[in-house]
Amino acid sequence: MTSPAAYFGLAVAGWISYQWYWFRENLKKVEHIPTVGSDSFIGAYFSAWKYILSGHKMVEEGYKKYPNGVFKVPSFESSSRWIIIASGPKLVDDIRKASDDHVASDLPTIDVRLPVCRNRDYLTTLEKFAARLMISAYSVTLSPSPLRPLMGYLTSNVPATEKKLKQHLGPIIEERLRQDAELGRDRPDKPNDMITWLLDLAPEELRTVDDVVTRLLISNFAAIHTTSNSLCDILFHLAAYPEYVEPLRAEIESVTREYGWTKEAMVRLHKLDSFMKETGRLAGVNVVASQRKVRQAFTLSNGVTIPEGFTIGIASNSTHHDSSIYEDADTFNGFRYVAENSSDPDAKEPSAEQVKRQMVSLDTKYVLFGVGRHACPGRFFAVNEIKAMAAYVLLNYDLKLPGDDTTPPLGFFFGSSRSAPLSAHILFRKRAST
C-alpha cells in the first residue's frame, strides 16, 4: 500500500516538473533578450529573490551593460516570471506610442466630505489597508498560481475592510442615490467629491453602495502610499538643503498673497514644483516604471520583438541618474526645472517653456509618472496635493535633520519599488512669525 508521503512526493515531483517545463517554454520566447541574473531554472529562482532585495542594482547593471537596449530580469512580480526592461529615450518613446492592443495596464478629503473625511477610524482603516495590500501583493506573487486567489483573500483583508468602510460611507452613498432619484442627476448643487464622480460615470447597474465603496478603496490605495512617500522625501530634502528654504518661502508668500490657496496659485509655484520634481528624479517611488502586460507581440524600433504575455517596463531610476541625459545627474539641483522667465511678474500665464518643465509634464527622459496613455492619471491632483502640504510646512515650520546632517536619507528598495526611509527623523520647530 502506497503511503501518503509517497503520494505527496509524487505530487511535488509533478509540480516541479510542470514548473520546469513552463519555465523552459517561457524562456524560449525571450532567449533573444539578454538576461541580468541567471536564466537557468534554479538560478533564475534565486535571481528573482535577489531582485526583491536589490532589484535597483540589477536594473542599473542592465542599464549600463545594454544602453539604449532591452534586457530581462527574473522577477516574482510578473506572471511570466520575467520583467523586460527598456532603456534609453528612443525605446521609452516606443512604449509611449504602443497601442492598447499591444500593451495594457497590469484621497480622503476629496473622496468624501466632513465629518467622515476626518473620522479617525475611517482614516486608520484606509491607512492600514494600503500597508497590508502591499504585503499581500508580494505574498500572492510568491505563491503557486493555483493558490493565488486563496492567498489574496487571506492576506489582503478586502472583505473586512469593505464592510468597515460601508459603515461610514453606506448612508452617504444611499442618500446621494436618493437625491439623484428625487432631484435629478443634473442638479447644479450636487456635492463635488469623488462619490459624486463615481456615481455620475457608473452605468446604472453599478450605481450601488458596494461598487462605490470598492472603487473608493482602490483609489485611496493608489493615492496613500505614493503621496505619503513623496511628501516624506521632499521634507527630507528640504531639511538637508536649507539654502532652498527662503527662496521657496518668498515664492509661496508672494503667490498666495495674490492668488490665495487656489489651483491657480499651485500652478504658479514654479520653484517649489521644480524642487519637488528634482526630489522625484533622485528619490522616486519606482525602479521600473510604467510596467505593462504585453497583450500582442510587438517590435521595438531597435528590431527586438517583445512576445505576448510578458511584462515590459522602463528603467526609471537609472534613467533619472543618467549623466548623458542630465548634467551633474547625481547632484541635487532644486531649481533645475525653473525656466529663466518663470518669475516675470507681468506674465498672466506660465510660459510655454515652464509648462513643459512642470512636474506633471510627460517626457521620455523623466518617467516618474510613466509615459503615454497609461501614465498616472492622478498626477495632477497628487502634485497639487503634495505642493499644498509642502507649502504649508514651509510657511509654518523650520526643519532640519538631526545633527545638522546635509545628506537626505536614502530610503530602501524592494523589488521594482522604492520607499522613503521608515526610521529616519526630521526636527520641526514652529516659526515665530506664524
UniProtKB/TrEMBL annotation:
SUPFAM superfamilies: Cytochrome P450
Keyword Oxidoreductase among record annotations: yes
Protein name: Cytochrome P450
Coiled-coil region list: none
Binding site for heme: 376
Pfam families assigned: p450
CDD domains (UniProt xref): CYP503A1-like (cd11041)
Gene3D superfamilies reported for this sequence: Cytochrome P450
Source organism of this protein record: Candolleomyces eurysporus
UniProt family annotation: Belongs to the cytochrome P450 family.
Cofactor or coenzyme needed: heme
Keywords, comma-separated and alphabetical: Heme, Iron, Metal-binding, Monooxygenase, Oxidoreductase
MF annotations from Gene Ontology: heme binding; iron ion binding; monooxygenase activity; oxidoreductase activity, acting on paired donors, with incorporation or reduction of molecular oxygen
